[in-house]
Write a structure and sequence with these properties.
Blueprint: E1 2-6, H1 11-23, E2 27-32, E3 52-56, H2 62-72, E4 76-79, H3 86-91, H4 94-116, H5 120-125, E5 127-133, H6 158-177, E6 181-186, E7 188-190, H7 199-208, E8 213-216, E9 222-227, H8 228-241, E10 247-250, E11 255-257, H9 258-272, E12 285-288, H10 303-309, H11 317-330, H12 332-338, H13 341-350
Parallel strand pairs: 1-2, 1-4, 2-3, 4-5, 5-6, 6-10, 7-9, 8-12
Antiparallel strand pairs: 9-11
Helix pairs in contact: 1-8, 2-4, 4-6, 7-9, 9-11
The site of nicotinamide-adenine-dinucleotide has 31 residues, from helix 1, strand 2, helix 4, strand 5 and strand 7.
Length: 354
C-alpha cells in the first residue's frame, strides 16, 4: 500500500513523512515543488529507503499528478503543499492564489479522475486528507470561546483567504462528487525543521547570531502552539478513523502571547547556550512595526478530535519548546544551509523599515 503526500519537503510535511516511515513500511510518494520553503535535505535520512519516492513537481501540474496516481495507486492523498507564510502573502498574494486555490483545484481534479476509475473496494477505502489552518476562522476577542469546527469562516489575510478557498473546494468535491475527504484545521506548529521566517525559529536563529528579535506591535497577539509531531499524530489519527466529510480542529490547548513565547526562547537559550558576555538574550528584543491586519488571537477547541478519535497532544509547551531549541542548537549546518541568498533577501525586505 502507498500514500501520496504533497509538500513533504516542507516543515510539517517532512516531519510527517519522517514519522510515517519511522512507524511503518507503507510507501510514501512525496510530491514537492521545492519552493524556497521546501528542502530535500529535510529528508536526507531517507536516502536509499525504498519506501520513499520523492518527485520534484507542482500540485498544479494535473498531468504529472494524474500519471503519479495511476502509477503508484495510493490509498490516500495527504495534502500539505501550500504557500504558508502570512507576511509573504501580504507582500505577494499571487503565489498564494496560484498554489493554495488553483493548485488545490487542479489536484482535486486529478484525484477525482483517479478515484472515479478505482474498482469499488479501493474507491470506498480511498481518502483525501486536506491539511488546513485555524486562521480560516479569523481573529478572536480576548475572552471569546475557542474556535470550534462550526465557527464561521472569516479569513483576514491573503494567506488565510486562500486556505479558506481551498477548504471550500475540498468540501464541495465531497458534497458534489462524493469524494471521500477529511479536513484538519490546526493551530500554530513549532518544532524541528521549521523554516526561520516564522516566529519561533526566527527568534532562535537571530538570538544566536546576535541580531535583533523583531516583535510585531505590542507582542500581545495570542497563538495556540502545538508541537509538530503532535500535529502529525493527529493527521494519522484522522486518516485512520476520521468520519468522511468531517473537519477536525487540532490544537495544543496552549494559548500564549508572542512576547511570552520570545521570553521563553530567550530564557532557554540563556540556559543552554549563554551569551559570552553573560547578558540575557532578552536584551536583543526589538519592537517593530506591526503586521498589517494582524489577527489578535487564535485559540482552538480540540475537543471533537479527542472525543471522537481519542487524540490528544503528547508534548506540553515546556517539553516541546525545550526539544525545539535544543534541535536548533544541535543542527547549525541545517540553519546555515537554509539561510541562502533568497532567505537573506526576504529578511532584508521584511524588516527593512525597522
Ligand atoms: P511550508 O511552507 O514549510 O512547506 C510547504 C511545502 O509545500 C514546501 O515544501 C513547498 O516546496 C511545497 N509547495 C509549495 N507550493 C507547492 C506546489 N505548487 N506544488 C508542490 N509543492 C509545493 O509549510 P508548513 O508550515 O509545513 O505547512 C504545511 C501545511 O500545513 C500548509 O497547507 C499549511 O497551510 C498548513 N498549516 C501550517 C501550520 C503551521 O503552523 N506551519 C499550521 C496549520 C496548518
Ligand atoms: O495558525 C496557524 C498558522 O500559523 C499557519 O496556518 C501558518 O502557515 C503559519 O505560518 C502560522 O501563522 P502565523 O502568522 O501565526 O505564524 P508566524 O510564525 O508568522 O507568526 C506568529 C506570531 O508572531 C504572529 O502573531 C506574528 C508574530 N511575529 C512573527 C514574525 C515572523 C512577530 O512578532 N515577529 C516576527 O518576526
Amino acid at each position: 500500500m502507498t500514500v501520496f503526500v504533497t509538500g513533504g519537503a516542507g516543515f510539517i510535511g517532512s516531519n510527517f513523512v519522517l514519522d510515517w516511515l519511522a512507524g511503518c513500511d507503507e510507501a510514501v510518494v512525496n510530491l514537492d515543488a521545492l519552493t524556497y520553503a521546501g528542502n530535500v535535505h529535510n529528508l536526507d535520512s531517507l536516502r536509499g529507503n525504498p519506501h520513499h519516492v520523492f518527485v520534484h513537481g507542482d500540485i498544479g501540474d494535473a498531468a504529472l499528478v494524474g500519471r503519479l496516481l495511476a502509477e503508484h495507486r495510493p490509498r490516500a492523498v495527504l495534502h500539505f503543499a501550500a504557500e504558508s507564510h502570512v507576511d509573504r502573502s501580504i507582500h505577494g498574494p499571487g503565489a498564494f492564489v496560484q498554489t493554495n486555490i488553483v493548485g488545490t483545484f487542479q489536484l482535486l481534479e486529478a484525484i477525482r479522475a483517479y478515484w472515479g476509475a478505482l474498482e469499488p473496494a479501493a474507491r470506498a477505502a480511498f481518502r483525501l486528507l486536506h491539511v488546513s489552518t485555524d486562521e480560516v476562522f479569523g481573529s478572536l476577542s480576548k475572552d471569546a470561546p475557542a474556535f470550534t469546527e462550526t465557527h464561521p469562516y472569516e479569513p483576514n489575510s491573503p494567506y488565510s483567504a486562500s486556505k479558506a478557498a481551498s477548504d471550500h473546494l475540498v468540501r464541495a468535491y465531497h458534497h458534489t462528487y462524493g469524494l471521500p475527504v477529511l479536513t484538519t484545521n490546526c493551530s500554530n506548529n513549532y518544532g524541528p525543521l521549521h523554516f526561520p521566517e516564522k516566529l519561533i525559529p526566527l527568534m532562535i536563529v537571530n538570538a544566536q547570531a546576535g541580531k535583533p528579535l523583531p516583535v510585531y506591535g505590542d507582542g500581545q497577539q495570542i497563538r495556540d502552539w502545538l508541537y509538530v509531531k503532535d500535529h502529525c499524530s493527529a493527521i494519522r489519527c484522522v486518516l485512520a478513523r476520521g468520519r468522511l466529510g468531517e473537519t477536525y480542529n487540532v490544537g495544543g490547548w496552549n494559548e500564549m502571547p508572542n512576547l511570552e513565547i520570545v521570553h521563553t526562547v530567550c530564557d532557554l537559550l540563556d540556559e543552554l547556550a549563554p551569551r559570552a558576555d553573560g547578558i540575557s538574550y532578552r536584551t536583543q528584543i526589538s519592537f517593530v512595526t506591526d503586521r498589517p491586519g494582524h489577527d489578535r488571537r487564535y485559540a482552538i477547541d480540540a475537543s471533537k478530535i479527542h472525543r471522537e478519535l481519542g487524540w490528544r497532544p503528547a508534548e506540553t509547551f515546556a517539553s516541546g519548546i525545550r526539544k525545539t531549541v535544543q534541535w536548533y542548537l544541535d543542527n547549525p549546518q541545517w540553519v546555515q544551509q537554509v539561510q541562502s541568498g533568497a532567505y537573506r533577501e526576504w529578511v532584508a525586505q521584511q524588516y527593512a523599515a525597522n
